[in-house]
């Protein structure tokens, strides 16, 4: 049973953003502080990656744990209302992510996925970016 009225639920769901989310902004801020220059949401690439580093042929997706079924606490939540609909929707997101990642790799791009839960600690983001890009900072 949903604790919200249909109007409250509609309002909550309409407020969910697909770009310029807080986790995405955190990652962009750290990339910028590390000296990387990037582009945002390039439509000519599969999946419209959140961040594109053309110089390094690298794309970064910042995925929400719930929406993309991460194995963390948030990603394992199962909605009680319309559970079949949400299960199918989230499964489609995962399948689409895999297809987009494969298409990008075939086109010669390196793909990095950063999960929402890992964006809470700036040091974790910085370490992940450095290790994935395999570039030493001085």
Descriptive report:
The chain is 41% helix and 12% strand. The protein is built from 4 helices and 4 strands. A 4-stranded mixed beta sheet has the order 1-2-3-4, with helices on both faces. α3 links the parallel β3 and β4. α2 packs across α4. It is globular and about 50 Å long. The model has no long low-confidence stretch (mean pLDDT 87).
Question: What layout of secondary structure does this protein have?
Answer:
Elements: H1 6-14, H2 22-33, E1 39-40, E2 51-53, E3 58-63, H3 83-106, E4 110-115, H4 122-133
Parallel strand pairs: 3-4
Antiparallel strand pairs: 1-2, 2-3
Helix pairs in contact: 2-4
Q: Determine the fraction of residues in helical runs and give it as a percent range.
A: 40-55%
Q: What is the CATH topology assignment?
A: Endonuclease, Chain A
Please give the domain count. 1
Mean pLDDT: 87
- The Cα radius of gyration reads 16 Å
Largest sheet: 4 strands, mixed
Q: Approximately what portion of the residues adopt beta-strand conformation?
A: 5-15%
Overall, the morphology is globular
Instruction: Compute the number of strand runs.
Output: 4
CATH superfamily: VSR Endonuclease
Number of helices: 4
Structural class: alpha+beta
**H/E order of the elements?**
HHEEEHEH
Spatial strand sequence of the major β-sheet: 1-2-3-4
C-alpha termini separation = 54 Å
Please identify the top-level CATH class. Answer: Alpha Beta
CATH architecture: 3-Layer(aba) Sandwich
Uncertain segments are: none
């Amino acid at each position: 049973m949903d604790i919200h009225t249909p109007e409250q639920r509609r309002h909550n769901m309409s407020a969910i953003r697909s770009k310029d989310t807080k986790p995405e902004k955190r990652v962009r801020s750290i990339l910028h502080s590390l000296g990387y220059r990037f582009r945002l949401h390039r439509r000519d690439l599969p999946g419209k990656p959140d961040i594109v580093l053309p110089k390094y042929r690298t794309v970064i997706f910042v995925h929400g744990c719930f929406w993309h079924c991460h194995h963390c606490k948030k990603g394992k939540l199962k909605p009680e209302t319309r559970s079949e609909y949400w299960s199918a929707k989230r499964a489609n997101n995962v399948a689409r992510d895999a297809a987009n990642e494969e298409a990008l790799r075939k086109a010669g791009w390196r793909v990095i996925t950063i999960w929402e839960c890992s964006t809470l600690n700036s040091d974790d983001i910085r370490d992940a970016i450095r290790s994935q890009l395999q570039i030493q900072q001085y």
